[in-house]
Amino acid sequence: MSKITETSPKHCADKKSINFHKFNKKLWFYFSTLFLSILSFIFLVWLILHPTKPQFSLKEADVNQLNLSSPSLLNSSIQLTLLSNKPNRKVGIYYDEFLSISPFYQGHEETNLVSVSLVGNQLPVAPSFAYEIQRDQRVGQLILSFKEMGRLRWKVGTWVSGRYRFVVNCIATMPFGSIPSPPLSFKQGSQCSTTI
């Protein structure tokens, strides 16, 4: 007869089986550590690169033609010059769609001048537009608000992001006389707001 060293069958079952409670704890700890490490890495990359939105300013706006052929039809010709500045040293920007110019790339800490002409012949406008033009004429100042929309992609090293829509809002105030007006010009420069 052999000597029994185990005190009870309960202890025998504990020795030979897998403890699922400890296994689940280890698995949960492993996945949570992996998840937090990935999040920390993404946050660190974002903090180092910190893609900031481009800054735009309106350098010049020239109104070469502005007249109403009837109370609700507008003829206009406007030349805009925008200054685009990208303050980030580590991220480049591809402008895929912006105004009516061809796509271009803006490198690290680069500044670009963007010039565009806006021409409209016999454009229908709201009946209140004539009243607003006459009011601005009485005041002696024409306030123009320009809203430009486009799409851009960020470039970090060889990686290029998906397309993001952005909107640039600019306001120009210029002296205003009679209609049909002589060329109006705005050359002061004003900061535009950019939303992405």
TrEMBL record:
It comes from Handroanthus impetiginosus. Keywords: Membrane, Transmembrane, Transmembrane helix. It is found in: Membrane. Coiled coil: none annotated. The chain crosses the membrane at residues 27-49. One of its GO terms (cellular component) is plasmodesma. InterPro entries: NDR1-like. Signal peptide: none annotated. Its main location: membrane. GO terms for biological process: defense response to other organism. PANTHER family: NDR1_HIN1-LIKE PROTEIN 26, OS05G0367900 PROTEIN. This is Late embryogenesis abundant protein LEA-2 subgroup domain-containing protein.
